[in-house]
Amino acid sequence: MTQLAIELDDVRLARERIRDSVRRTPCLRARFFREPAIRHGNLTLKLECLQVSGSFKARGACHKAHTLDRQALARGLVTASGGNHGLGVAYAGWRAGAPVRVYLPDSTPASKAALLERWGAVVVRHGEVWDDANVAAMTDARGAGLTYVHPFADPIVMAGQGTVGLEILEQNKAVDTVVVAIGGGGLISGIATAIKGLKPEARVIGVEPVGAPTLHSSIAAGRLVTLDRIDTRAGTLAPRTSDEANLAIIRGRVDDIVLVSDEEMRDAARWLWFEMGLSVELSAAAALAALRTGRYAPGHDENVCAVVCGAGPDGLT
């Protein structure tokens, strides 16, 4: 049997380490609405958009910081991000007293850069897409002796993200299916490890943009694929490639990956705003979009949880 990067015990350990650093976010039943969220099934929404720093990314970043010694923290942290991971690292650095440098692609909204600076991070713009910024961040880490915090391929980060899955099962023991947006694959790798470890019969469904089907294409090809181009405004779901560690977990623990368009994500984001008063980024509406469009169609009595993974105004524009 192939040894995967993380197991359930890693996620449990992560929860103990970050218990006093992150919020246990609400998991709300979707009801009492003018317009029903989905046609069939019973839906709950895991609101990681209410997590400190604005997304689930604080979990993995804080877990990484908890594993570093004082000397490493004093030298500082560096990462590349479409925005949310950088905010998580900036928050983790702020808590630990570590300087933080975040490389952003030029496509990152100015609002994300401003938030990073408010958390005390140094922002560096580099390249057109995340992959370009990531090369620069890794070069900086080697040259300056900084700790590089990978947004999705680090097992320590994945385990931190997996704590979302532990909470879902505690908050909704009857859940049959968890629907999760995929960027590089760190969130779904962690969640799937927790869900399948505790409830193997439950399904985990991934969602990617039509314009950035990184893991969908990799699964279809049977190998890690690097996309030639990205065509989506959902920047936090748009790396050109993932990592072998994430691909292995997703292949083994994720039941299916479906694709949604930017407009379908925008429709779901507008629903979250008008029905729930939640301002989320385009990427954070991907899981709900998959359910509203029927890309994943729950059965009549199926208990489904959609992860709403990040706050932001761009889902409404």
Produce the secondary structure layout:
Blueprint: H1 8-18, E1 27-29, E2 42-47, H2 57-66, H3 70-75, E3 77-80, H4 84-96, E4 100-104, H5 110-118, E5 122-125, H6 130-144, E6 147-148, H7 155-161, H8 163-171, E7 177-181, H9 186-198, E8 203-209, H10 214-221, H11 244-253, E9 256-260, H12 262-276, H13 286-292, E10 303-308
Parallel strand pairs: 2-10, 3-4, 3-6, 4-5, 7-8, 7-10, 8-9
Antiparallel strand pairs: 1-2
Helix pairs in contact: 1-2, 1-7, 2-4, 2-7, 7-9, 8-9, 9-11, 12-13
What does this structure look like?
This protein has 317 residues and is an alpha/beta fold. It has two domains: 210 residues, Rossmann fold; 96 residues, Rossmann fold (3-Layer(aba) Sandwich). Helices cover 42% and strands 15% of the residues. The protein has 13 helices and ten strands. The strands form two sheets. Strands 1-2-10-7-8-9 form a six-stranded mixed sheet, sandwiched between helices. The chain has a four-stranded parallel sheet with strand order 5-4-3-6, sandwiched between helices. Strand 4, helix 5 and strand 5 form a beta-alpha-beta unit. Helix 1 crosses helix 2. The longest helix has 15 residues. It is globular. The termini are far apart. The model has no long low-confidence stretch (mean pLDDT 94).
What's the structural domain tally?
2
Gyration radius from CA atoms, angstroms: 18 Å
Separate helix tally: 13
Annotated CATH architecture of the largest domain: 3-Layer(aba) Sandwich
- Overall average residue pLDDT: 94
